[in-house]
What we know:
three-stranded antiparallel beta sheet; 25% helix; 38% strand; flat
Amino acid sequence: MPPRPFQAAHGPTSALELDDEDGRCVAVITQFGMVGKDVHAAWEHLAASLPDA
């Protein structure tokens, strides 16, 4: 089941936060609008394609 979107000032939205090995945020990717299975799968693919720290 894909994550449920948050309600933001401009409507439904969600965000993906990427943290380094020390737990510090290194990137935040935001998607405005409805987030379905395709977006969730794309984010999983993006995260998996990043190099190891």
